[in-house]
Amino acid sequence: MNRLVITLLLALAPMLSTSQAFDKYENMKEVDAMVMTSKMFKMLAKVDLSENDPEAREYMKLIENLDRIQIYKSSDSKVRSQMAADVKSYLQKGSLDELMRVNEDGKNIKFYSVPGKNDNYVKELFMFLDGETDGEPISVILSITGEIDLSQLSKLTADLKVPGAEELKKANKKS
Question: How would DSSP label each residue in 110-147?
Answer without folding.
Answer: EEEEEE-SSTTEEEEEEEEEEEEETTEEEEEEEEEEEE
